[in-house]
UniProtKB/TrEMBL annotation:
Gene3D superfamilies: lambda repressor-like DNA-binding domains (1.10.260.40). One of its GO terms (cellular component) is cytosol. The keyword DNA-binding applies. Keywords: DNA-binding. Residues 14-68 form the HTH cro/C1-type domain. PANTHER family: HTH-TYPE TRANSCRIPTIONAL REGULATOR, METHYLPHOSPHONATE SYNTHASE. Coiled coil: none annotated. PROSITE patterns: HTH_CROC1. The keyword DNA-binding applies. InterPro entries: Cro/C1-type_HTH, Lambda_DNA-bd_dom_sf, TransReg_Diox_bact_type. This is XRE family transcriptional regulator. It comes from Rhodoferax lacus. It holds the Pfam family HTH_31.
Amino acid sequence: MGRLHINEVLGAKIKRLRQEAGITQATLSQRSGLFRTHLSRIECGTANPTLTAIVAIAVALEVDPAMLLKESALSMPGGQ
């Protein structure tokens, strides 16, 4: 099984955190200021979110943005 692309790992992490928080994509959209369709693409791993979007999502989920990025980067080949 190959390694997942970083966007897929990041998206899965965001989706898991959102679901654990018990909020919908619509609610996360309102809290982050991002379009719901963009959030959906991020969660599916098909969008390449900007750092600004990642920070907005992290703030809306009340998590450290660095945690999202670090855990995603660790899944990449050569991740430390």
